[in-house]
Amino acid sequence: GTTLGQSANERGRYFGAAITVGKMNDGTYMGIVDREFDSVVAENEMKMDATEPNQNQFNFTNGDRIVNYAIGKGKKVRGHTLAWHAQQPGWMQNMSGTALRNALINHVTRVATHYRGKIHSWDVVNEAFADGNSGGRRDSNLQRTGNDWIEAAFRAARAADPGAKLCYNDYNIDSINPKSTGVYNMVRDFKARGVPIDCVGFQSHFGTTIPGDYRSNLQRFADLGVDVQITELDIEQGSNQANAYRQVVEACLGVSRCTGITVWGVRDTDSWRTGANPLLFDGAGNKKPAYTSTLNAL
Ligand code: XIL
């Protein structure tokens, strides 16, 4: 293929990008998105603060702009994200207990229902595990509603949109470490008990290098019977960014249940990681060496 999406497609994968409504009138930006990617995800527009700014008053305007663009262009859409400790609306931030649990389930149900049939994979829960060596959950208002909040969110998402793949998504789970093993144990438990989970998203926000056990870590999750996806890829520009991107593609292609890759932005100037130049296109929209190595590895 001659584009990332086309080439990934020939390998039975998708290749997506995070996009934002605020740039949808930037011709250079949209020209790249139109041409290169066969999947998109909203960088912020489907998060809890965006979709439910006031309790039980939902706003899908910006999320719909992204979904309708994608449908019009025949692109797939990832959903990000139904439940997260961050970017919660103000009204939710200080809630607790049964009221918060009920608000969470209502949120998951209403948002997943609105987008039913249009999302190929939902990040149902984002970043619920703690950094460091505990292997346990991150403390948050959601976690304090009870350890079963994650499975409750997944069950509500399945009921609302039975056709979407339901993912758990996190960072620093890209290698074999206590945090990724904590997630691994949760996924194994969910599969054993019939909690609906279909995929794990590996954010893959990398420094200048890729963990040596990246592929084997993806494989151990796939061996639990879930798909794996690389969901927020960006790699700090160092001496060998092109090689690092190639390694990521090779890791995904090396795991049959790795179904796709999403980069977290389009041009370096669009990245949330200021100064890292971690993406595939430079600020002018030109293809970087990392673009070429990614395309060639697909
Ligand atoms: C980031 C966005 O890129 C920024 O625009 C926003 O200000 C903060 O969130 N992990 C995630 C993403 O799951 O939602 C985050 O996106 C990046 C880290």
Automatic annotation (TrEMBL):
Annotated GH10 domain residues: 1-297
Keywords from the named record: Carbohydrate metabolism, Glycosidase, Hydrolase, Polysaccharide degradation, Signal, Xylan degradation
Keyword hit for Ribonucleoprotein: no
Entry keyword annotation includes DNA repair: no
EC number(s) given by UniProt: 3.2.1.8
Coiled-coil blocks: none
Reactions performed catalytically: Endohydrolysis of (1->4)-beta-D-xylosidic linkages in xylans
Family: Belongs to the glycosyl hydrolase 10 (cellulase F) family.
Protein name: Beta-xylanase
Organism: Cellulomonas phragmiteti
Residues of the full protein shown: 39 to 336 of 499
